[in-house]
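Entry:
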Amino acid sequence: MTYTQKKDLLLKQIRNGIKMTGHDQIMLVVLLSVPSMLAQLTHIVMQYIDASMVGSLGKEASASIGLVSTTIWLFGSLSSAVNVGFYVQVAHRIGAGDFCGARNVLRQSFASCLLFALTLMTIGVTISPYLPTWLGGNADINADASLYFMCYSMCLPFAQLNSLCSGMLRSSGNMHIPSILNIGMCFLDVIFNWFLIFPSHHVLGITIPGAGLGVMGAVLGTGLAFAITSLIMCYFTTIASKDLNLLQDKGSFIPKLETLRKALKISLPIAVQHIIFCGAQITSTLIVAPLGTAAIAANTFGIIVEALCYMPGYGIAEAATTLVGQSLGAKRRRLARSFGNITVGMGVAVMTVLGVIMYITAPSLMTLMTPDITVQQLTTHILRIEAFAEPMFAASIVAYGVFVGAGDTLMPCTMNLGSIWAVRITLAILLSSTMGLQGVWIAMSIELCFRGIIFLIRLHGDSWMKKIG
């Protein structure tokens, strides 16, 4: 039996009310999680290569991207939040066996999400000349940072489309197509960057010309990769998908009030969370910026390297959202809880192992990413601090995916925000004055442990399953 046949057979057991053994549940979690985890890991490896390419240009180039990275996360997170409101509805409808209704939600999502992306793009392009100054950047990095953010903003519609279609496919239980395409996007990103960042390359004695665009080449490479992948992803969602193929029936692309109302109820808390969360990240940038260019660069590299640990957790969280959403859509609350426990346990196990690997290999990784010895040493120190927080960070990531699958977003978002602002930012302000960048990362580590504990407490209760089912 092939991967697809086994996965589809197990998903049908959820929809048809067939009893699932513990082995069946674990097998389904693995089948859905592994493709997403591999995609996330590949994405991080490509980010490492990407960062190394920019890092070879000097710490100023790395710092210029790091300065606006938190604002980029804000824009990307808002786009993602809008998509969630629609693809969670699709998961619920598929779980209930209403495939026609799922396709109608898919149609209505396109106009809403792309209009939002165009609005966000306009805002980003407008503020790009002023953003680096607002964030406290130095004159030697502000011009590149501004250009990078403007080009990124212009790519947002493609990023939105890619994220929306990926979420729709995952909600239908198709994890491998989004994973394969996103892996392909990472490779395209590296190839485009290779030609766009540097002026030339010497391979086997042959000089291959490049564009030599520096920092701007990095964002253009990413934008081209997003554009190509998003169009292919849209094809697999709207035409090639067995469950979501829009050619099977007719329907309107004009959003209905009821669909928008449900999407808003799910997405709004997530969007507000991302705004306040990224506000906290921007505040962290403001705390780090006065510590100097080396600290900004080390902070940027630390965030990129740590993603090796936590991105697989997000892959498992995607599986948790799909399985819990379909289980509750099928009115199977006990099964939803079981999937929640299994996915959280798996996330904690995987990220604990990766945390140990990060602690051991941090010095070697940094020698590959930047030639600057000061940045290497500082990044190694902060990564080893963060490694101890990975198990509880995993618990919060995957539990959040469980809650999203249930359509329960308001309380988890409130918990996230309270934890970040009350614990992380407060401690970062206190510790940075005496411990520098290491104090900022100690504050982050303490907060992640606290957040994981409160998410496990909520997962143990029943309130998150009361939204549907």
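The first strand starts at residue 200 and ends at 203.
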